[in-house]
Every structure is written in C-alpha cells, then in structure tokens.
Amino acid sequence: MKIFNVLMGLLCLMTAPVSGLAQEKIPSKGLAAVSNKGKFEVYEFERHAIGDNDILIETMYASICHSDLHHVHEDWGSEEYPMVPGHEIAGRVTQVGKNVIKFKVGDYAGVGCMINSCGDCNYCKANLEQYCKNVVMTYHAHDQYHGDEITQGGYSNNIVVKDQFAVKIPENAKMDQIAPLLCAGITTYSPLMQSEVKQGDKVAVAGYGGLGHMAVQYALKLGAEVTVFDITEDKRQDALDMGATKYVNVNNEDELKGMDDSFDFILSTIPAMYEPAMYLKMTKYKGDFAIVGLPALDNQPTLTVANFVFLGGRNVYGSQIGGMKETQEMIDFSVENNIYPMVEIIEATPNLVEEAYQNVLDGNVKFRYVIDMKTLK
Amino acid sequence: MKIFNVLMGLLCLMTAPVSGLAQEKIPSKGLAAVSNKGKFEVYEFERHAIGDNDILIETMYASICHSDLHHVHEDWGSEEYPMVPGHEIAGRVTQVGKNVIKFKVGDYAGVGCMINSCGDCNYCKANLEQYCKNVVMTYHAHDQYHGDEITQGGYSNNIVVKDQFAVKIPENAKMDQIAPLLCAGITTYSPLMQSEVKQGDKVAVAGYGGLGHMAVQYALKLGAEVTVFDITEDKRQDALDMGATKYVNVNNEDELKGMDDSFDFILSTIPAMYEPAMYLKMTKYKGDFAIVGLPALDNQPTLTVANFVFLGGRNVYGSQIGGMKETQEMIDFSVENNIYPMVEIIEATPNLVEEAYQNVLDGNVKFRYVIDMKTLK
To answer: Could you give the ipTM of this predicted complex?
Structure first.
C-alpha cells in the first residue's frame, strides 16, 4: 500500500499541473551552430522553468527552414552563437503549468516561429501576435519575459513555451511530416486566406521549395488553377505531379511569353535575388502579389514607384507567418485534408544537419529536411 | 430673304453634325516646347479632321501638370519636339461628328490624359481605358487611329477628340478652375474610391501640390481625418486652412515620431525622390498605400522585398488617372460639392509658361497654373 501511494504520488508529480513557483530550470540538449560558417555541434543548455501557463514539449521532429540558413549565416543581421535553430517543431507534451487547460500531458503539440508576445497591443488583440513589437522569436532572440535569456530553437530535445504559442496537433496527424507546417505551412496558408483565393482563381507560386510546395497544395485544395515558377528543370515533374497546370522555368524566356495580366494571386516564396516587377506584371488588375520569401538583406529585390504606377491597380503586400489562431486553423485544415510537406527525415547529428544545409543552399532538397530529434545523442 | 437663307445655311454649317467624309484637317495653334530645355514657342500645326464620333473643342483653359514638366524635360524617356503639352483641358464644343449624341455645340467639355483606346480589350470593356495597351495619350504620343500622327495637347486653341474621351462639364461649373480636375482630380479621386475611403478613416496625403491639395479635399468630403506631409513650411497654413487635422514637415524628424501604423490610407503624390518605406510603416495593418506620383525614371524611389515582409499586411498599389466613366463621376462629384483646385491664371505666352514651369519645379505654386488659352496670340 505504501509503495502504491508512492507510485501514485510520483505519477501525479509527473502528470499534474506544476506550479511556476520554485520550479527548476529545464536541462536541454540541441544541435547548435557555433558561428556564421554553419558548423554545428551538440550543445547542452538550460531552458527557463515551466511557468503556470507554460508547457514542456519533448521534441519529436524539427525541420530545416530556409530561414534557419539565413539566420545561421547572418544574412538578416548579426546573431549570437551558439545558436540552436528550428522553428518548425512537433512533439509531445510532457509537463503543463498549473493554469494550462489547453493541453494535457501526452498531447501532441507544435511550436512555430514565436513563443511569446505582449498580449496587450492591437496586434495581439487581433490574433496577429507575429506583428507585436515585443514578440519573442523561438530562437536567436532575447526573451524579455524571462530575464532576457537567449531563446534556443527546435533542433533540441525539448522546449518550454506558453500554451498560447503552441498549437494542438490532432492525434491522427502524420507526426514525422507535420513540423514544416508550423512555418512553411502557415506562411503560405495565411496570404491565401488574406487574398481570399477561391475556386477557379488563377494562382501562381514563385519558388517551388519548402514554402512553395505547401502553397501549391493549399491553392489546389481551394480550387485554384496553379502555375509554378522556378529556375530549374529538376522540379518540373514534381510540380505537375502535385497538380500544377503549368510549370515555368523562368530561365527559359520563351516560357514567360504571354503571361502578363494572368493571375488573380501570385505568391513569391523566393529566398534569393529576383525581379519582382516580372511577377507584378503577370498579376491581373485588382489581383494580389503577396511576398513571403525574404532574400538576404544586403542584396534585396526591389520594386520602384514607377513599377507600381505603370502596373497600376495590382496590390503588393508582404506577409509574415500567421497569428496563433490562424496557425491552429491551418494545422486543422492540413490534417483534415491530408496536406503535408514532402520530407526527407534525417538523424540528429551535426554532420547530417550541415550536409542538409548545403543541399538546401544548392536547391537540392525535395522539399523539407525533418530532423528526427529522438536520435539526438 | 436670300440673305436670311445664306445666314441660316451658315448657321447650320456651324452647328449641325458634320460627316467624317471629305472633312478638312483642323488648323491649330499652341505653345510648344521646342526641346528638353523647356523653351516654349508659339507653334502652328494641324489636327486630324473631325470624324463621325469626334468633337472639336475650343480650348478655354489648360492647366500645367507636374507631369508636363517631366515630359518636356524627358524625365520619363525620350520625346519629340515641338511638343504642345497639356492634358488638363476645359473648353466649349464647337463642332460635333454626325454620330455624336453625347455633346451638342455649345456644351462645356473637358479632356484629360487620353484621347483614344482600342475599345475591345478587357480594360476598355471594364471602363479602365487608361490601362489599354493601345491607349493614345493626349500629347507626346503617336495616334495609331489617325495615321500615327503625333498628338498635341491642350496648351492650344482647340482639340479634336472622340466623344467618349471627353467629359461633360456641367453648365454651373467654374470653368477657370476646372481644367486641373481632368488629371489632378481624377488621379487622386480614383485611388480614394479604389480603397473605399470612408467617414472616420485616417488618411494621409504625401506631397501637397497640385494633386495633393485635390486629394485632401476629396478625402475631407468623404469624411476622413486628413494629415498632410510635405517638405516645406510654406504650405503648412494652407493645409490646415483647407481642413487637414495635421501638417507634417518631413524634414523635421520630431514631427514624424509616433506615426507608425497610423493611417488607413496613404496617398503619395510625390514627384521627386523620397522614402516610400517611411509611408508603408505609417500605414495600418490592412491599410492601403497608394502611389500616383511618378518621379524621374533615372532616380526612382524603391521598396524592397524586406520592406514588404517586415511591414506585412499593408497593401501597396499604383494608380493611373482613371477611366472615362470614373472621370465623369469625379467631375460631377467635384462640381456638386464645389471642389476645385486653387489656381493661378496666366496668359498664354511662352515667357509666362516658362516662368510657371520654373515655379512648379521650385515648388513655388499654390497650387495649379491655369493658362487662359483665349489669350493666345
């Protein structure tokens, strides 16, 4: 009887909500870039204690987003190292803070690009936490809500996050494929929603990579006729197999002919230098050209005022991921409609991550590397 | 009796619809720029004969648009001289082609930036003739519908134009002030309509010149709260007198503080170099930043892809004048609501036009020069 009580006590301790008071920091281990050269090492560090509204997630899968490369390589500004990248994270909840009702231990949960925000500003109130001035990014950020600690991302065995910034992943989800949705999925789903893409619309997706191949699937599911633009022949068949009506290799000038004023909606996921005016020209009057791809800051594609005036009536806007409410909607929509990225699963070793980075850089990935974090040693 | 018949005959000849057949070319006289240095001379030339759907307008007033300067100075590409500028034209109909029912002799009529288009394309069918690939501009263009003749503008004693490309000006209009509406009016009215600016909206007008001071009046009439941006103190009081809530001299950094995410709609009429990203930043999420000002092509303001992504959710679009249907609506709206530009009327001499151009270039005009074409000698 005594033993039973002790066991029950332990079980309660393991599954019951934990108080934020007197909590210990959480030991964590991950794969960290040690400099902007892209060299990785296994790195041990601590995460902040589990607060009353926090959950602890044991990472199952973390995927490699092109933006991880931009951060590691300091393309978007100076960074601090060691840096554990990763903002596409899927795992299982192992502890919950005492106020948490959204999750219970054992649930699947996902974490994307952000882990906290002020909660008070107009953006936060409008479920657009990604635009909050005090948003905390999942990694390479300072967390002002936790003593300004440096945040570390998903290439690690666990993560502590406020419940609001984790999405519920349905039990029937394909866990080994779902992580990329947390960034690539929401980043492409959100502008398709913003522009209200619908049955019969002509949609173009520029850049057929991790983001692009999600955009194509969402656009097709919404009933659009989809054309894909990229700079290689290697992906032509993949795009057509996925259901694209047309694939355009923009390096072949002939393929670009006669495409002016063709699309109700164009989404650019291109992460490198390109000519946005070419796509603006292909946008129909009153159509939208949405930009989510962000090339290196020191070599930016531009649109001139003259581009806008000469191609009047076409809307251009940028978009960043999506708010947490929309991220949850996207996850539910994706799982319900069996929309997943095409992934290549790798083990969690520095060498394999470095190799994967090189392949992403070279455009040799179809279409997302997912790191199996359970293999981290 | 004989004399009476002859007089009646003459009168009929003057007022009856004329057939396009066997019509003579129309002698015309104007003020032409003779080179890109901005030197003007009196210039005699011919306009094409009055076709069955054409009207002949005796020019009463033509105003000086900033874009006239850009054309004369070849800021937007190479031009041909002599060039008679002017695409803000108000006058009286003196002859009508035999198919014309929209106008009768004696009516007031206005002509703006274009005088013909294909009539068949999707733009023409959607009353967006300004975007037709075969649109004929009022001057500095080749008219493919009339043997490729060079079109000459409104700084002249008359103009021949297809009735569809002339607007009816109500009898109670202030004729000496109305010409600028044909470009400055419609160019600012149209984006306000496109963005559905309404009561209570916060609107900013960047560039308080010929276009800007029309935009302010329309926005106020629509019930918006208007802030004006310019680079001078000289116009502060004018803007406030007109009803602007606030005037910001962008050269005073302090005045720009705290303006991020402030406006539902921003209209840039700026014709010179500036930083569009500054205005994008001041646009609210889901707000529109519309661009109508077109600086010289060799020194263009730009927006980077990063600007769009970091300031996600703000729409940017350019706009060119407006279609003929909307131009008529704008004229009716303006006259009905007593909305006119502030004008300075000058006589039609080369010297005065050259002087006016210099003042426009220096920003020393409040707000539009109108040339009284009846004074042309």
So the answer is: 0.91
Do residue A301 and residue B297 have CB atoms under 8 angstroms apart? no
Q: Does domain B184-318 have CATH number 3.40.50.720?
A: yes
Backbone torsions φ then ψ of B89, nearest 5 degrees:
-130, 130
CB contact under 8 A, A309 and B302: no
- Which residue's structure tokens are 């703006």? B112
**Element of type H or E holding A327:** helix A324-336
A306: nearest CB among B300, B314, B316? B300
From chain B, the residues in CB contact with A123 under 8 A are 285
> In CATH terms, is domain B13-183+323-332+342-375 a member of 3.10.129.10?
no
Convert B143-178 to b/e letters by CB count within 10 Å (16 or more is b): bebbeebebbbbbbbbbbbbbbbbbbbeeebebebb
Chain B residue closest in CA terms to A195: B313
User: Residue B312: which of A131, A301, A310 has the nearest Cβ?
Assistant: A131
Q: How far apart are CA A300 and CA A138, in angstroms?
A: 25
With CA atoms as reference, the chain B residue closest to A76 would be B306
A25: three-class secondary structure by DSSP? coil
Closest-CA residue of B relative to A270 is: B305
pTM: 0.91
Shortest CA gap B292–chain A (Å): 6
- CATH tag for A2-182+342-375 (out of 1.10.3660.10, 2.60.120.1440, 3.90.180.10, 3.40.50.2000): 3.90.180.10
- For the four alpha carbons of A302, A307, A309 and A314, in that order, the dihedral sign comes to negative
Q: Are A315 and B317 inside 8 Å of each other by CB?
A: yes
Rounded CA-CA distance B376/A153 in Å is 75
pLDDT in tens, chain B (377 residues): 344 444 444 444 444 445 444 479 999 999 999 999 999 999 999 999 999 999 999 999 999 999 999 999 999 899 999 999 999 999 999 999 999 999 999 999 999 999 999 999 999 999 999 999 999 999 999 999 999 999 999 999 999 999 999 999 999 999 999 999 999 999 999 999 999 999 999 999 999 999 999 999 999 999 999 999 999 999 999 999 999 999 999 999 999 999 999 999 999 999 899 999 999 999 999 999 999 999 989 999 999 999 999 999 999 999 999 999 999 999 999 999 999 999 999 999 999 999 999 999 998 888 999 999 999 99
Chain B interface, best mutation among A299, A304, A307, A320, by max B CB count within 10 A:
A304
Of A294, A309, A317, the CB nearest to B314: A317
Q: Hey, where are the domains in chain B?
A: 13-183+323-332+342-375, 184-318
Q: How far is B274 from chain A (nearest CA, A)?
A: 10
Identify from A113, A299, A305, A311 which residue to disrupt to test chain B contact, counting B C-beta atoms within 10 A and taking the largest count.
Answer: A305
User: Cβ–Cβ contacts within 10 Å for residue A366, how many?
Assistant: 17
